[in-house]
Design goal:
Helix content: 25-40%
Distance between the termini: 90 Å
Strand content: 25-35%
Oligomer: single chain
Shape: elongated
Order of helices and strands: HEHEEHEEEEEEEEEEHEEH
Number of domains: 2
Structural class: alpha+beta
Radius of gyration: 30 Å
Amino acid sequence: MLKRIFYSVFLSTLSVGAFAQAEVAGAEVENAYREEIEEQYNPNSINPIPKYEQHYKLRIWRTIDLQEKQNKGFFSNNGEVTRMIIDAVKSGEITDIYAHDSLTTKLSKEEFTDRLRATASTTYEAWDPGRDWYTDEITAYNGKNYQALRDNRGANPETSPDDWAGTSAGSAVDYLPRDINILRLVEDVIFDRRRSRLYYDVQAVQLIVPGAKTTTGVDEYLGWFKYKDLEKVFRNHPKTAVWFNRQNTAQNKNFADAILLRFVPRT
């Protein structure tokens, strides 16, 4: 009886061990297969083409001047593509900003907004009730700046409208969306051997303020974005992400469709 029980327990242990080994082996095979599939597809592509279907692939960089006539569909007044990207960052709709086109090193939202500043803020002397203030002098009080309307002494800026007026002087000034008129695109040109045709696969977009609009005279590089993230924003805002057709407004397109249709010529 004891032998029978022993053999039963022994066989049960063997069965459990064999099942566990098979389960582990199955998981390893599944992971290896998943890794192999992931290696075949570019995670940054909108419509990835597996490597085994690519006859060849070239990576190219293109510079787009949005002020040029052929690009103005992306740069209509108050409908600039740069405005939409900046607004998406500020609202939190876009969270990933990158320092380089490799799309590996990220910038924080604060770093990006710092780069957006055309001029830094100025710190003014704090208001002192014991000193004389003269007309047009500026002081800081409770987080705001005030400009003297006349010579005064001891007049509280917050409660003396005859002596002081709030002013925006000294505040940081950001670049306007129309100042950011240069885009740099990175895209892969892929020949699909199965479909026997060429595809343009946009990977990333960089926003640039040209040197003509910076205080230093040098181009200001604001940041890189995955095009996959931008395309999602464009699709989510069909009423504002509009490529404007000046000849026929009935043919206006979504920014994403305009890029897909190659309405962004090379400069």
